[in-house]
Amino acid sequence: MNSKPVARITARKAPEFGLIVGVALFFAALLPLESGAQDRIDPVTGFERDAIHTAAWPDGKKVAVSFAFFVEEFGFGQGPIFRPDLASRNPDLVNEAFRQYAIDWGVVRVGRLFKELNVPLTIVVNAEFFGKHPSVWKEFRSMLPNAPLVAHGMNNTSRMLPLRSGIAAQRAYIRRTLDLIAESDGVRPTGWSSPSVYANRDTMRALAAEGVAYTLDQMDSDIISRLKTPEGSLILLPYPAVTVDMGQYLARMKTTREIEALWLDYVSELVIEASANPARDATTVVIGIHPFVVGTPDGALALRRVLLRLKADDAVWLADADAILKAARLR
C-alpha cells in the first residue's frame, strides 16, 4: 500500500476545522494547570487516592494512548449478543457465530494489524482462554511475543470474581488466575482488569495483597492515580467507559466508523488542551478493544485508520501499559 491511498483513508473531513480548534484552544487555556481533583477519597472503595502528576511522556509528548485488547472466554451459549431478538433460540446460531467469528478470525486479525503497523498493544486475557483455544492463542502470541499481559479473571460469564465471599476468596481467585496465566504463557501478569469491570473494595485489597501492581478498573480520570489500600498501593490506569468499543457497538449501536470518530475526537481534544496549556499534566487513556468489534474486516479498517492517524500526531505517544508505568517511574 503506497502512502497516497493511506493519506486519503486517514484524512478526516473537517470544514472550518481551524475555527473549531481556535475556539477549543481558547477555552482549554482557561482550565487549571494541575489535575488536583483526583487527590481525594475514592468514592467506590473509600480508600485514599492520589493523583500521579507527569509533566510529559517520552520525546515531550503530552497524551499517552494504550490500546488494550480483550481476549476473552465466555463458553458456548454465553457472552455478548449481537441480535437480542434471536437470543431465545436454541441453538442460537446467529449470536453463537458472532462470538465464534471473533475468536477464530478476529483475535488473529487484530494481532496481525498491530504487528504490521508496529504499534504497541496491551493484551487483557481470561485465564481459561489458553486451554479453550490453544491454537488461536499460539498464532496470536507469536505475532506479539513481547506485549504485556493483563490478567482478566478466569472467564467473563460463569467464573467471575466472588465479590460477596470476602477478601480471602477474592485473593484465592486472583492467585489462581495469575498462576494459570503464568503456567500457560510463561509470564505472570502484574496488571489486572476485573471481568466485566465488576469489582469492589475487597477486590482492590486482594489485588494489592497478591502483588498486583496496577489495574484498569479506573474509569473516571485522565491521569494515573495511586490507590492506597491497607494491604498496599495499586496504580490505577485511566480506562474511560466511553472509549470502550464493546459498549458503543452493542449497547449504543454505533458503527465502527462512528467509534473511529469518537476515538479520534477523544484524543484530539486532549491534544488541543495540552497545546493550549503546556504546563498541564500529561494525560493517559487506555482504550478497550474487542475482537467482536475491531476483529471484523470493517472494524479492523476503522482501527487501522485510527492507528495511522495517531502515529502521525507529534503530541501522541502510542504505548503499552508497561511502557507507560516505566515512563511515569512507577516500575
In words, what does this structure look like?
This is Polysaccharide deacetylase. InterPro entries: Glyco_hydro/deAcase_b/a-brl. The chain has 12 helices and 11 strands. The protein is α/β, with parallel strands linked by helices. The chain has a single domain (38-327), classed as Glycoside hydrolase/deacetylase (TIM Barrel, Alpha-Beta Barrel), CATH 3.20.20.370. Strands 1, 2, 3, 4, 5, 6, 7, 8, 9, 10 and 11 form an 11-stranded mixed beta sheet that branches. Helix 2 packs across helix 9 and helix 3 runs parallel beside helix 5 (134-143). Mean pLDDT is 90; it is low at 1-17 and 23-35.
Question: Helicity, in percent?
Answer: 40-55%
Amount of beta strand: 15-25%
Please give the count of helices: 12
The fourth-level CATH homologous superfamily is Glycoside hydrolase/deacetylase
Overall, the morphology is globular
Compressed to H and E, one letter per element, the order equals: HHEEEHEHHEHEHEEEHHEHHEH
Indicate the structural class: alpha/beta
CATH architecture group name: Alpha-Beta Barrel
The overall number of domains is 1
CATH class category: Alpha Beta
Rounded average pLDDT: 90
Q: How many β-strand stretches?
A: 11
Unreliable residue stretches: 1-17, 23-35
Largest sheet: 11 strands, mixed
